[in-house]
Amino acid sequence: MAIATINPATGETLKTYEPLSEAALEDKLARAAAAFAEYRLTTPRQRAGWLRAAADVLEGDTDAVAELMTTEMGKTLASAKAEAGKCVKALRYYAEHGEDFLQPKPTDAEAVGAIEAYVVHQPLGVVLAIMPWNFPLWQAMRFAAPALMAGNVGLLKHASNVPQTALYMEELFRKAGFPADVFQTLLIGSGTVERVIRDDRVVAATLTGSGPAGQSVAAVAGDALKKTVLELGGSDPFIVMPSADLDKAAEVAVTARCQNNGQSCIAAKRFFVHTDVAEEFTRLFAEKMAALTVGDPMDDGTKVGPLATEDGREDVERYVQDAVDKGATVVVGGRRVDRPGWFYEPTLVSGVTPEMAMHSEEVFGPVAALYTVADLDEAIRIANDHVYGLGANLWSEDQGERLRFIRDVQSGMAFVNGMVTSYPELPFGGVKQSGYGRELTEVGMYEFANAKTVWIGPPGRQQGEGDTAAAASE
Predict the structure, then answer these.
(1) Distance between CA atoms of residues 277 and 247, nearest Å
(2) Which of 398, 416, 434 is the endpoint of a domain?
(3) Residues 50 and 68 in one domain
(4) 221-272, pLDDT tens digit by residue?
(5) CA dist., res. 189 & res. 232, Å (int)
(6) Which residues are the active-site residues?
(7) Are residue 206 and residue 246 in the same domain, yes or no?
(8) Calpha distance 266→274 (Å, rounded)
(9) Region 331-349: what's the mean pLDDT?
């Protein structure tokens, strides 16, 4: 794929970039390593100050960077502004809490025969972030804010269709006063990623993307014995039980499915509705989906913009056609919009069965798959019968159902009476083929930190026989 800005609302190529030459890439890697040698010695308070400054810069740039994201990948302007605001919040969160997260963690010194024992979290080094286009600022910031707060240096290999947003990220941290080369964007193709991961100056990698991309990165990093964090998508279940507020559940269901034009890893994609309320919920869901305004993402009244790429729209069309060919019913939508750009109608498909591709694969577009279930046990069973386990939603006022859902659903996140979303204050990530590791809060910051054990004995004390024997047995 060419490194280029192509407006999804028109199909027009606006700007193209040449990939970095080998010499230019080598220069950036060398500068990143040199930057880490100095940056690791800065204090958490200094880093917090730079993060706070970055938040102020981004807040001032919100309108411009939102227009840039909308132009590059088609999200509505309102959602792009909200995304920028979310990044501002994350920067301020780590600026406010990062110093506390990085304080030494005391342990029971007496139990280990020391006068002092603690754990200190130290930065690993240069970390490569391989990011997708669907939340071009937020997903990169989920990595950048905690990694920089921890004292690491970042290299961003962004998706090839959002190069200007990627370059803005580098500019943002430069304008905020971070030391030179602490965060750099690499305009490279996917074929160059392995070379960067294998470079001795790069110590770890994080990727948000597809399963095959995750397998490739994990294999290369594993061969080089380097740490990885992977977030590889999902097909989140959205379960509706009889005690739910059906109108509210349907309203949130539409947002949960069509957020970001349906292109979100944590979008609800499979809807499991109890048979007692299936007819009413389907009616409400269909009405609200049909009421969404599809159009120019720059317009204030638009709720759903284009898909980010032409190939993406073709994939969505194939999933819907496959389901129809195998007996499913299109309740609402099901067609591309007759206008320039890569638009597709918000779509509700009922009667989905295991033979259909959308049952077992992730549909990355505004298409909801609807199932009718006899009870919560059936909903959870079908929900878990999937390779992904990112997030999950339950709508119920029954405490027993809530507890069973939290206990039994196989996911990294479980939301009750609300849609799955991400917050700086909560860990973010999945299980199964949705990946491993966590982003956000202190958990995400520690992913790229060395939890170093420190043991300090009393002056002149020698470890006793018990200590020596225990050490020898390890």
Answers:
(1) 11
(2) 416
(3) yes
(4) 999 999 999 999 999 999 999 999 999 999 999 999 999 999 999 999 999 9
(5) 19
(6) 231, 265
(7) no
(8) 22
(9) 97
